Structure formats: C-alpha cells, structure tokens
Amino acid sequence: MTQKRLVILRTMWLDGPNIWTYRSCIEALVDIQELEQFPSNLLPGFYERLTALLPGLVDHRCGIGEPGGFLLRVREGTYAAHMLEHIVIELHTQAGLEVGFGKARMTSKEGVYKMVFRTPDPVVGMACLEAGVRLLHAAIEGAEYDLQAELKVIKHHCDMHGLGPSTQHILDAAYERRIPIVRLNDGNLVQLGHGNKQQRIWTAETSKTSAIAEGIAADKDLCKELLAQCGVPVPEGEMAKSPEHAWEIAQDIGVPVVVKPVDGNWGRGVSLELTKEEDVKTAWPLADKESYTGVIVEKFIRGTEHRVLVVNYQVAAVSRGELVHVVGDGKSTLQELCNQQINTDPRRGESEIFPLRPVNVEKNPAVFLEVQRQGYTASSVIGDGVKVLIERNSNASEDVTDLIHPEIARLCCMAARVVGLDVAGIDLVCEHIDQSPKGQSLAVVEVNAGPGLLRHIKPAKGQARNVGKPIIESLFPGDANGRIPTISYSGGLEIEGFGPELTEILEDQGHKVGLACDQGLLMNGRTINKAPSANWQSGRNCLINKNLDTLVMQVKASTILSEGLPYDRASLAVITSLGAMDGLDEWDILTKEQHFNVMRTVVDLVLGSGHAVVNADEVSLLPLKDLCDGKVIWISSTADNPIVAEHVKNGGMAVVYQGESIHFMGSRAEAEQRSPIPLKQPPVSLTKTLALAAAGWAMDVPHHLLRADLRQRY
Questions:
Q1: Are 647 and 498 contained in the same domain?
Q2: Helix, strand or coil for residue 496?
Q3: Whole-angstrom distance, CA of residue 445 vs CA of residue 429
Q4: How confident is the model at residue 1 (pLDDT cuts 50, 70, 90)?
Q5: Shared-domain flag, residues 108 and 184
Q6: Domain ranges, residue 201
Q7: Is 190 helix (H, G, I), strand (E, B) or coil?
Q8: pLDDT confidence of 713, banded at 50, 70, 90?
Q9: How far, CA to CA in Å, does 698 sit from each of 196, 541, 652, 679?
Q10: What integer pLDDT is reported at residue 590 of this predicted model?
C-alpha cells in the first residue's frame, strides 16, 4: 500500500476561553493529504490494529453519546483528523490525565482540518499530539509501535510540567467554587482569584502561611522548645554535633531514641527506635545528609505514628501510619520479597501521583539501616515464615479522621497555633488516637509546613478526604470567589477610545483599573506600555497585579483565535459591532457567520450576575441576547427600536438616544430614578457614548456622577 500520512501544519496554545471551549487547549491545523480519499473503512486492517494498540477507545462516545460511539464511526468510515483527535485524548487518559474534549472540523481547503483537544499543559499536549501522529501512521501502515515507550515520555513530561497531586486537589476545590485559577510558573505556584482579591498557593502552602511560622516548623529544635513552653507534650532531645555526640545524648535521655534532621521533611533521614551505639552512630550521617542545619536526637515515643492535618486551626483529616513488613518463604532474597509483596502494590510508583514509593533496600539508606539492624541485607534469603520490618515511617496510611479524641484534636490545633501555620501537618505518636491523652504515651514529634495531602486524598485504607475544600474555605470564606470586575469591549471604529474613557469614569469612583487596549497598557493610571496591548499577556498582567481591583480589556477576534482570553468569566461585556474581518482569513474565518461565532465568545463568558451591553442597531448582534447568562442592556440611537421596546416591555434594560439626551429605560431605571442626561452637543460617536452610559449603569456608578462625567465629555 502506498504510504498515506498526515502533516501538522501549525499548532496554537489557546491559554484560556476560546471559540472551542472555556478551558485551555491546543488547536492543530492538520493536512490529511491523500488520506482525504481514504476514510477508515477503506484502510484494510486499520480497525483491528488501532483497537489493539488503544483498547481504551471503546469508551469514547463520540456522536451517538454512549461508549463505543467512536469505534462505530471508525467501522463505518471517518477521517484521519477525527481519528487523531480521539487518539490524542486516549493518550492523555493512558498517562493519567482526564481531558475528555476534542473536535475536528473541516476548513475551506480540501483535506485540511482544524483539530483541537483540551490539555492541562502545552508541553504535555504537544507530546501527546506527536505520539498520536506516530500511532495513527503505525495503525494505517501496520508498522511496529511501542506504546509503553511513548507513554513513558508523556508521563515524564507530566512529571516535569504537570501540577503535583496536592496542588491539583486544592485547585479542584477552587474550581468547584468557580474561583479563577492562574498558574504562575511551571511548578506548583498558583494564583486563585484576580487582582486585589487573589490568594496564592504553593503546593499546600498559602499566601496566609507566615514565613516566620515556616521557619519555626523547619527548625525542629526551636519548634519543640516553643511547643513545650506552651504545654504541648514533646519528646526530650537535643542537637547532636557528631555521631559520638549523638550517642552521648542517647545515653543521657535513655534509649531507644530517634535520630533525624533538624530541618527535614517527608520522613527523609529519620531513623527510629535505636538502642545500640553502632546504630545511633550510623544513623547520624543519614540525617545529616538530609539537613542544612544539623541533627537532633530525641527520646523514642512508643505508640503509632499519626499525621493530623490542621487547616485554619481545625482538624481536617487524620491518618495512621503502618509498619511495612515482608514474610520470608525460605527461597527469595529480601529485595525479591519486597518486589513481590510490597512493590506490586498499585499505589506504589516513582511519580508523585502515587501515594507510596517502591522499596529498594540498597538505595534507601533508612531501609538499609533498618534491615541491617535486624541482621539482613538486600541479598539475604529470608527463612520461611520469618517477618522482617522494612519501614517504620512509611507514608502507607489508614484514615482515622472520625476516631480522633477531642482532647487530642485540641492539642494538635494548639500546636499549629503555637507555630502559626494556617495549614500544618502535625506528626503525633500515641497509643490510642480515640482515647484521652491522659494515661497513655503521647507526644507531638513534628509540625510541618506545606504538608503533603496525598495520604489523605488516597489513603491506603479508609475514607478519602476532601482536604482541599477547607483550605479553599480558609482562603475564601463565605461566598467570596476572588473575582474582580472584569470588563471586555469589542467593536469597530465606532467604539474607538471607549476603554480609556470608561477607565477614567471608574477611576473617578475610586476603582484601581488595569486597562489593556490598542492605546497601550495602563495600571492604576500609570502607563506601562504605549504599544498596542489588546492581547492575552497584557490582560493577564493586570489580573495578577495585587494593586488592581478592575480590568478593562479590549477584545479582538484575532486574540480569541490565536491566544484565547486571560479571564474565565466577565462581569460586563460591551459589543457594538462584530468589527472588521481584515486578516481573519489567517484562521480561515471567511464569512460573517464564522465571525459571529468568534465574537459571541465575549458574551458567552458573562457571569449570571453580570451584564452584556449590545448594540440593538446592529442586526448581526441580535442573536447574542439568547447567549448571555446575565442581563442584556440594549443600546440604540433611536427610542423606537422595536427590539428595545419589546425588551423593556419584558422587564429588560436599555439606553437610547432621544431629543439630544441619553435615556435609561426599564423598571430598574425607574426604581433608581435615572433621569435623562442631556448632552451639550451631538457626540462624534453616538454608539460609544451610549455604551459608556450603559456600562456605567451596569457598574453601579451613581447616576449624578455618571451624569457629570458624560456632561463633561459631551
């Protein structure tokens, strides 16, 4: 068979709402070339090869809305761009990413398609796209294809560029509250909300996490001293300057002891229940390797380790640690037993999406020391039925949130308050989590800033806890959603200068406005850039500025098509016309209908509590009324516009020009006693003047102040 292949002509990362979806996605321009004449049903053996490579495609619904829908299309005959879309989505799924959205649409050029798919990151998305092209070609040609090797590369990109599980869990809770999310770097620094309403998180640290508190938590010796002074039980211990000093301390406080780094975290470098001089001295360099500031030796507290997550000084979740053992069979080495009995657990893996790590006796110093103390090495053959302890401080855990005794919960909350952490991981050792502290062995051994949440999200046993919810509630109490007024405006020459004039009106009311438009980028009255700035980056720069409380952004079709929009929803959208179509053929926008489908995006994004100001004199804009979640304010150069009359009759809002005055119409205008505003002279652009009046009304500018502003201008 002649080689049949497609070619990717162009890709675009649309980082925000666009013509396809509210979420970020990649749009690829795909030329399927000769494959235009060969739909899937004309490719011998293709169906069998494709489903053998990706059996998960059976779950794709496609047109019929139920599992198997896509494969039915493949059997009946569908085109290469459509198949590539589903392959790319399935590769995301195989890599552990649920994206679930894609489309493929023909362009005006035969054989060329726009193919789009949702993806959380451009690097990950491109890796899936490139792998998808290779897989499609292999299925068409019957060539060898190493899916696992491709997935390994994709998962590596996920690890390098994706969000960690703790961060993602918090963002899921934010999304449930419809709080805007802005990723600030390639790591886990994320902004929640916009402008002066924003908060930030970095994994499980928040913008409310004190640097002083974090420093105290990192200094285990200082932290323990402060806790003890406030009545929180802690283990006796002190800093050890050397292995020999560590053994001296152990003798003074009495064995067994714990040797650990002063500023460590995640249990790294921690050795437990040491009784022998050799073990204590061996543990010291393991702890020192994980520390910048030294090693501490503490009295070992008998009991079970627990991690208590405290958020805003309330217990959010509790997990109980487990000791990890293997049992010998008389034939296998210790490492082989670990591979058979521990590392086969599906919860274990190298990536941070797994709650547990594989056990490698030789490479994990703490495990190596633990088994060495019992007289074993990785190559030791363990006798039949002999139980060997592998890990004492494993992250393997059981959720026991519902069992914690109120007095123990109070102690843990006190510990978090003493340190000053809004989100704290309290490491507690006790014999009975469900009983009073009195009469049992109990101590707070560590207080951790930025605690990992995975053990609570995916416990080895017990109920998973939505710990992201209380973190979001602490950052955004009540109905707060982190949103600032976000205003877009679109049109042609008739609305030129609208943004700067509206900004002046809002600044007169005390708003601190960021303006991104053709006249430049301004923040709080200061010019940042004089070059045309009606683009994604300038809008985003305003949204991340903590000094601003309002965004005014000029939105063009080219921005929607090539970049996406920097905000997820708008308080107010002003649109006076579709604008010119010059240059839109670059994105294959050739008709007024296509142009309308692009510009409708600004109205699609209006919040239910927001407004859209729409020019009723433009027939092409009339369908926008039915697309707006909020309220529509029609503007018209004449009071007898039938669209306006019907709208007002049904309780709607309108602003019209009549008798050289601006009139506010509707029941709300009557209730607010918004009287007509006479103009001193006919404005150069009546449409812009009406739009300013309507926007001021939507933004609750007091009528007498709006009147004064407009009278001064016109």
A1: yes
A2: coil
A3: 7
A4: very low
A5: no
A6: 165-206
A7: strand
A8: confident
A9: 21, 25, 13, 20
A10: 97
Residues 525 and 549 occupy one common structural domain = yes
Three-class SS state of 628: coil
Model confidence band, residue 168 (pLDDT cutoffs 50, 70, 90): very high
Q: Return d(Cα 510, Cα 596) in angstroms, integer.
A: 35
Classify the phi-psi angles of 615: left when phi > 0, otherwise alpha if psi is within -120 to 50, otherwise beta.
Answer: beta
Distance (Å, rounded) from C-alpha 556 to C-alpha 565? 10
pLDDT for position 393: 59
What is the tens place of the pLDDT at every residue in 405-427? Answer: 999 999 999 999 999 999 999 99
Is residue 227, in this structure, part of any structural domain at all?
A: no
For residue 233, the Cα-to-chain-centroid distance in whole angstroms is 38
Pick the closest to residue 260 from 215, 228, 219 (CA basis): 219
List Cβ neighbours of 52 (8 Å cut-off, separation of 6 or more).
none
* CA dist., res. 85 & res. 248, Å (int): 66
Band (672; pLDDT cuts 50, 70, 90): very high
Q: Tokens 């899921």 map to which residue?
A: 172
Q: DSSP secondary structure string, 46-101?
A: HHHHHHHH-GGGGG--GGGTSTTHHHHHHHH---HHHHHHHHHHHHHHHTT-----
Q: Which of 32, 50, 33 is nearest to 41 (CA)?
A: 50
Contact in structure between 234 and 228 (CB atoms under 8 Å): yes
Q: What is the pLDDT of residues 591-636, one digit of tens each?
A: 999 999 999 999 999 999 999 999 999 999 999 999 999 999 999 9
Which one-letter DSSP state was computed for residue 573? E
Statement: the pTM of the whole predicted model exceeds 0.85: yes
Q: Which residue has the tokens 């169906």?
A: 47
Q: Are residues 17 and 98 in the same domain?
A: yes
Burial class of 582 by CB neighbour count within 10 A (0 to 12, 13 to 18, 19+): exposed
DSSP bridge pairs for 310:
315, 424
Contact of 345 with 339, CB cutoff 8 Å: no
Q: Of 190, 187, 213, nearest to 201 (Cα)? A: 190
Does 684 share its domain with 588? yes
